């Protein structure tokens, strides 16, 4: 939400500066993301009027303007703007002015003609990123007045990063309510009243989907002036809120959306065929939207339709065929309430996100529709004229949301906040937040959100409830609240205080002393206002008390907890152990989203069948990951694109895979390695990481289990994401538990990766259990080592050779070590030589040469028989 500070201060004006206001909002849960000036830094720019215009003698595209700036003599200014004309009022930079971008205005000559200043556009004043001509000011703009003063440019825009539960603050009225409560000030907004209805024309409205749209209000306006323009003050407020001016009708609906938080839409009455129907679309229907995009509708999409076809995507965007245009003279204004669950996700499903859908998804005040309609009508008539018809207000009351009372226990406040807030202060805060507070039965064990036997009284709910500004319990009465938040008149709102709010004695804390009623027995029943969709539980009310009382005012204390020592078997390796091991190897931990790009997921793991999200955050986060590789690859690409050529990343997290019809969440440990293996240093040459470095890191992880002999690596040429010649599947006792390898070159190219990338992923379950160290007897007799070199087919792996030797050898075989691989001269094509060191030792005696020769002979015979290996000569 982006808004002008001056606009906010017209509603409520606390005696604090901008920085303090921003801090106050942030500490109240409305985080301020940015504060920016509404215009660039400039001076000596005034309102100028073109009183004469002549062609430039030496340039066809330039003209010489005589400009009145309120001085003794008019200025001569050479201008090339297409819209310069006699009678135009525009910002005029005087000689000596400084404009944004360090542009200094001096006396100059343009093609030989003296120029004594510059006529300015919005871009040159820092009011817009681009402009097609001079900024045109209203005809009544006072000549000679400073533009900064005339446009009130000594202002800032404040941008809030609101959480989804605070949809009530997506308007200036909502933010003003908060500021008023925080500073105990009255909130004064415009009074909409009721517009005169000289015409009796109406449009029939039918609610066919009352569950999704239980309330719809609309009215006709005939005879508006199609030539009317948007007033500068309104266009400026829209600009400072991040919206551009599109014409008075659309601008007014956008203005009311920003001011009150009620999205609205205007239809060209001449383009509607019959009455309005709020219904679900029929399968196969299509709609061309205002952005010229044509979409195919499904049967779960709510639409606004006339008697022939849909004319708007309900709560999201209007249709192009019924849009207001330059020649529109009759319009139908719409102001509706749509249930959040009916709108949520629909816009993103069509690749859209609008200001309307953003608000309806979070919840709009169901009592705001008619007041907003009256406010928009008044603004339109003031700008465009026209005659209004009566409001058509159709609702299905039993489908409208009702704010159920929430029980609040006084003793619970202190236990959660750790602060002693007096009872009357509790009532005061909740009342100023627009809530109705009533005493409840002292049932300490009763449900905190119970609404048994109680309802929300209509007279206690207003169209736009706001803080009354009173510290004496006022504001709980419906008749004392105007449609827009205004303070009650002096003396009103007091006579029913006794039956609405009964606070405990002032100053009573958690102790209660020897008073007749213990503070622990005080229970209130609190009815939230219609605009607070996020207040449903007792803890929600306590959160409100904490933030309004002030988080800075809550005492700091250490939590008191009872610790129970959990059982931790020595054979279980915690995940943190493996993370520390990777950090020691130079890796950095990454934490990525579980939602990934379906296209990238398909490239990396096409066989997995990822779960597609029904309501994704965005199009590139629309599937649940079946591997941690997509997130790691995107993180690596981000770093490589920023000149970080050495990237070692790991992540511990869940992957989501289908086991039959069930979706399983499997914890895995994944890593990525790219670039130099070590940081540059003088003692050795820089070496790029390769497949065996990646495999070595994985082997170090597996060795931590104490069961390294249970794991093996088999070549994998089938995985689509990995290089066929540099990929392996990790097996534990014959069962796949992970993979590693180089990223496939085609995939590397499509991702725009400039260097080789190596990946690994292991199921955490395979690493969790470890073999406990156990003593084994040591032989006191010497060991004997024999080296052998064998020649065999190049496709046979060293692992198969070691497996064959272990199978053929006896218990005397203590160790096998591969220390050389040779291919080249002296070895036939398609074959290779492996050199292995075999260590033999016996526990009971010293081995003789005959024992060793017998063992070696048995091993060589097995190698020849099973693998076709021969002793190298």
UniProtKB/TrEMBL annotation:
Limits of the B5 domain: 401-556
Cofactor: Mg(2+)
Places the protein is found: Cytoplasm
Ranges that cross the membrane: none
Domain FDX-ACB: 779-872
Chain residues that bind Mg(2+): 534, 540, 543-544
Any single biological process term in GO: phenylalanyl-tRNA aminoacylation
Top EC category: ligase
Entry-linked InterPro entries: aa-tRNA-synth_II/BPL/LPL (IPR045864), B3/B4_tRNA-bd (IPR005146), DNA-bd_dom_put_sf (IPR009061), Fdx_antiC-bd (IPR005121), Fdx_antiC-bd_sf (IPR036690), NA-bd_OB-fold (IPR012340), Phe-tRNA-ligase_IIc_bsu (IPR045060), Phe-tRNA-ligase_IIc_bsu_bact (IPR004532)
A GO cellular-component term linked to this record: phenylalanine-tRNA ligase complex
Name of the molecule in the record: Phenylalanine--tRNA ligase beta subunit
Organism in which the protein naturally occurs: Thiohalophilus thiocyanatoxydans
């Amino acid at each position: 939400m982006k808004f002008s500070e001056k606009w906010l201060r017209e509603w409520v004006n606390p005696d604090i500066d901008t920085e303090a206001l921003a801090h106050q909002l942030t500490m109240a849960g409305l985080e301020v993301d940015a504060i920016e000036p509404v215009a660039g830094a400039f001076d000596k720019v005034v309102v100028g009027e073109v009183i004469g215009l002549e062609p430039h003698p030496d340039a066809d595209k330039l003209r010489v303007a005589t400009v009145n700036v309120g001085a003794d003599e008019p200025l001569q200014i050479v201008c090339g703007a297409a819209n310069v004309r006699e009678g135009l009022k525009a910002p005029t930079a005087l000689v000596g002015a400084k404009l944004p971008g360090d542009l200094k205005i001096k006396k100059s000559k343009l093609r030989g003609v003296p120029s004594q200043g510059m006529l300015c556009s919005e871009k040159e004043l820092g009011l817009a990123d681009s402009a097609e001509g001079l900024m045109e000011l209203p005809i009544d703009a006072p000549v000679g007045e400073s533009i900064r003063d005339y446009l009130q440019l000594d202002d800032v825009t404040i941008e809030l990063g609101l959480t989804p539960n605070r949809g009530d603050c997506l308007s200036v009225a909502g933010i003003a309510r908060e500021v008023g409560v925080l500073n105990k000030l009255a909130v004064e907004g415009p009074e909409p009243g009721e517009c005169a209805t000289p015409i009796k024309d109406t449009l029939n409205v039918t609610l066919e989907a009352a569950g999704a749209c239980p309330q719809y209000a609309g009215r006709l306006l005939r005879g508006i002036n199609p030539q009317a323009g948007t007033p500068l003050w309104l266009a400026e407020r829209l600009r400072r809120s991040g919206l551009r001016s599109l014409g008075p009708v659309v601008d007014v609906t956008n203005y009311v959306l920003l001011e009150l938080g009620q999205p609205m839409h205007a239809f060209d009455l001449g383009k509607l065929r019959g009455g309005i129907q709020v219904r679900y679309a029929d399968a196969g229907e299509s709609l061309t939207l205002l952005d010229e995009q044509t979409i195919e509708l499904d049967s779960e999409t709510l639409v606004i339709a006339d008697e022939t076809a849909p004319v708007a995507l309900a709560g999201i965007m209007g249709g192009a065929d019924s849009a207001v245009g330059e020649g529109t003279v009759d319009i139908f204004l719409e102001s509706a309430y749509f249930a959040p669950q009916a709108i949520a996700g629909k816009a993103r499903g069509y690749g859209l996100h609008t200001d309307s859908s953003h608000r309806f998804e979070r919840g709009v005040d169901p009592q705001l529709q008619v007041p907003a309609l009256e406010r928009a009508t008044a603004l339109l008539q003031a700008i465009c004229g026209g005659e209004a018809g009566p409001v058509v207000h159709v609702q299905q009351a039993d489908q409208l949301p009702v704010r159920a009372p929430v029980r609040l226990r006084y003793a619970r406040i202190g236990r959660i906040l750790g602060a002693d807030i007096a009872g009357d202060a509790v009532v005061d805060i909740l009342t100023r937040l627009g809530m109705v507070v009533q005493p409840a039965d002292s049932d300490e064990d009763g449900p905190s959100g119970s609404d048994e036997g109680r309802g929300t009284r209509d007279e206690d709910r207003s169209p736009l409830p706001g803080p009354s500004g009173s510290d004496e319990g006022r504001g709980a009465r419906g008749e004392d609240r105007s449609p827009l938040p205004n303070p009650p008149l002096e003396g009103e709102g007091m006579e029913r205080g006794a039956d609405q709010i009964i606070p405990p004695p002032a100053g009573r804390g958690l102790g209660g002393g020897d008073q007749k009623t213990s503070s622990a027995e005080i229970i209130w029943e609190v009815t939230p206002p219609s605009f607070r969709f996020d207040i449903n539980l007792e803890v929600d009310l306590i959160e409100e008390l904490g933030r309004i009382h002030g988080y800075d005012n809550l005492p700091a204390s250490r939590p008191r907890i009872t610790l129970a020592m959990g059982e931790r078997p020595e054979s279980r390796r915690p995940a943190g152990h493996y993370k520390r091991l990777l950090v020691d190897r130079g890796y950095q931990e990454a934490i990525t989203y579980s939602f990934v790009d379906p296209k990238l997921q398909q490239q990396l793991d096409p066989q997995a069948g990822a779960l597609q999200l029904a309501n994704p955050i965005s199009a590139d986060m629309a599937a649940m990951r079946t591997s941690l590789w997509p997130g790691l690859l995107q993180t690596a690409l981000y770093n490589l694109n920023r000149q970080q050529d050495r990237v070692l990343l790991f992540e511990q997290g869940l992957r989501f895979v289908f086991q039959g019809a069930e979706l399983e969440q499997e914890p895995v440990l994944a890593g990525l390695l790219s670039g130099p293996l070590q940081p540059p240093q003088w003692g050795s040459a820089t070496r790029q990481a390769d497949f065996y470095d990646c495999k070595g890191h994985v082997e170090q992880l597996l060795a931590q289990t104490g069961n390294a002999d249970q794991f093996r690596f088999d070549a994998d040429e089938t995985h689509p994401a990995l290089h066929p010649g540099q990929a392996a599947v990790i097996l534990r006792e014959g069962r796949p538990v992970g993979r590693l390898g180089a990223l496939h070159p085609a995939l590397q190219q499509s991702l725009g990766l400039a260097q080789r990338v190596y990946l690994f992923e292991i199921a955490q379950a395979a690493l969790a259990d470890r073999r406990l160290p156990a003593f084994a007897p040591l032989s006191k007799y010497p060991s004997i080592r024999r080296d052998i070199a064998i020649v065999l087919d190049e496709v046979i792996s060293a692992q198969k050779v070691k497996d064959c030797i272990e199978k053929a050898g006896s218990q005397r075989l203590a160790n096998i070590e591969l220390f050389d691989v040779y291919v080249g001269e002296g070895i036939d094509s398609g074959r290779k030589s492996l050199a292995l060191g075999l260590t033999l030792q016996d526990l009971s005696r010293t081995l003789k040469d005959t024992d060793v020769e017998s063992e070696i002979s048995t091993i060589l015979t097995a190698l020849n028989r099973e693998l076709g290996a021969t002793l190298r000569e």
